[in-house]
Design goal:
With 308 residues, this protein is α/β, with parallel strands linked by helices. It contains 14 helices and twelve strands.
């Protein structure tokens, strides 16, 4: 018999899936920058910057909230927004397919965990189990592969399913899945519910891992270079200033989560030093190829812009 789902999981799912585009249909303004995001802790640096940038320079960041990566990516790829906080592998795939985008910074550092049911004690125990990831093109997929490799297993040894992030804690609670890896705070939700535990943190499997990135469209960079430069500089400064206390304050404003969940989630993540180094990117590109996410990821020089 399936367990009754806690009320806050249901309410969090409804909040996450709701798409609130705010003023996204309004006429473009010369001093407005439209940035797409999902309501996750991995987006906190861009959420924090939205308020700070207007105070400092008069540039306004119009935050456009989406309920899924597919919706967000469609807006980014069609230039309906100027940029996004997005899974970097999705942006790499867009670039590979000829879409004009550039990664200009990381979204965060670390901040991912592999959560498993309480009866699983090692990666070897995952053999034959069902494991959820949010998207094939994700660092969560890579981390699953890395975890399996510690036990001499590969992706063919588990049943991989793609689920919306909000569904994962409840799916673990009901026994539909045996583990998951996803953007925060949904890992923390499973842990705080007591239905799962952390088997690995991202830094245990992949030091200097890349996950979400801040991506701008080539159109925005080309047409409004000075604004793009100011935006990126302000974003990185906002990340450096985003300590745990400030991050929780921002998260409480934008995410529908309890204090306990946020306290757990924010133990695993940081937002300082958000430059994308060539060494870290090339390691990501190698993993993307090794694990079959892409045969031809874009080169660092073609995809990453660090020279504002």
């Amino acid at each position: 018999m399936k367990k009754r789902l806690p009320a806050f999981i249901i309410s969090a799912a409804l909040a996450f899936s709701a798409v609130s585009c705010g003023k996204s249909d309004s006429k473009d303004s010369e001093n407005t920058i439209k940035i797409a995001y999902l309501p996750i802790t991995h987006s906190l640096a861009v959420l924090e910057e939205a308020e700070e940038l207007e105070k400092e320079s008069g540039l306004k960041v119009e935050l456009v909230k989406y309920g899924s990566w597919a919706e967000l990516l469609d807006a980014l790829n069609s230039n309906r927004v100027d940029g996004a906080s997005v899974l970097i592998e999705l942006a790499m795939k867009s670039k590979e397919e000829g879409i004009g985008v550039k990664a200009v910074a990381l979204g965060h550092r670390d901040g991912n965990v592999i959560v498993v049911s309480n009866d699983i004690d090692s990666a070897a125990d995952l053999k034959g189990k069902t494991f959820a990831i949010p998207h094939r093109q994700s660092s969560h997929n890579i981390l699953l592969n890395d975890a399996l490799a510690t036990a001499g297993l590969n992706i063919g040894d588990v049943n991989v399913t793609e689920l919306a992030p909000t569904e994962m804690p409840s799916a673990l609670a009901s026994g539909q899945i045996d583990g998951y890896c996803v953007a925060e705070p949904f890992g923390a939700m499973g842990v705080n519910l007591g239905v799962g535990k952390v088997l690995f943190s991202s830094e245990e499997l992949w030091e200097e891992s890349l996950c979400c990135g801040l991506v701008l469209t080539d159109k925005f960079i080309d047409e409004r270079y000075d604004d793009a430069k100011s935006f990126v500089e302000s974003y990185k400064s906002a990340g450096n200033a985003l300590d745990k206390e400030k991050a929780k304050e921002v998260a409480k404003k934008y995410l529908n989560q309890t204090d306990d969940v946020l306290d757990t989630s924010l133990q695993w993540i940081s937002y300082n030093d958000l430059d994308i180094t060539e060494e870290a990117y090339n390691e990501l590109a190698d993993k993307v190829k090794e694990y079959g996410l892409s045969d031809n990821p874009p080169a660092y020089a073609d995809f990453v812009k660090n020279d504002f």
